UniProtKB/TrEMBL annotation:
<dbReference type="InterPro" id="IPR009732">
    <property type="entry name" value="DUF1304"/>
</dbReference>
<feature type="transmembrane region" description="Helical">
    <location>
        <begin position="107"/>
        <end position="127"/>
    </location>
</feature>
<feature type="transmembrane region" description="Helical">
    <location>
        <begin position="54"/>
        <end position="72"/>
    </location>
</feature>
<feature type="transmembrane region" description="Helical">
    <location>
        <begin position="79"/>
        <end position="101"/>
    </location>
</feature>
<keyword id="KW-0812">Transmembrane</keyword>
<dbReference type="Pfam" id="PF06993">
    <property type="entry name" value="DUF1304"/>
</dbReference>
<keyword id="KW-0472">Membrane</keyword>
<protein>
    <recommendedName>
        <fullName>Epimerase</fullName>
    </recommendedName>
</protein>
<keyword id="KW-1133">Transmembrane helix</keyword>
């Protein structure tokens, strides 16, 4: 169960890396605007905010990956603490998104599913 939880945490980190790319590198592209449902003007006016937000997503992914590497390297307690910090923050951000904008529920589920599953699997592994 521990390995499954860590693998799902890696999937969450990879997804947040992709979100980083969209928010910080391709925010004003037509494809990214379509994903986020924005006009060119909206994307341009929020470009700097999205750029900054993208880095938050990147850092959460990095923390999670460092935790996974640490856990697989034998530093299980430290590794899991970092993984829980990373995926817990990802899940909290998804909850904030759905609470603040009900019309973004699909995006919140997409953003929060892997972190939620990782947390459940890791908690089950620790309970055994």
């Amino acid at each position: 169960m521990l390995t499954a939880g860590l693998i799902v945490a890696v999937l969450a980190a990879v997804l947040h890396g992709y979100i980083f790319v969209m928010e910080s590198m391709t925010w004003t592209s037509s494809r990214t605007r379509e994903v986020f449902g924005m006009t060119a003007e909206e994307a341009e006016s929020t470009r700097l905010l999205a750029f900054n937000q993208g880095f938050y997503n990147l850092f959460l992914g990095i923390v999670t990956l460092i935790g996974v590497v640490a856990a697989f390297s034998g530093a299980t307690a430290v590794g899991l603490a970092l993984v829980f910090a990373g995926v817990g923050s990802m899940l909290a951000a998804a909850v904030v998104l759905v609470v603040s904008a009900r019309d973004k529920a699909r995006a919140a589920v997409s953003q929060g599913l892997f972190p939620f599953l990782a947390i459940v699997l890791l908690l089950l592994a620790l309970a055994v």
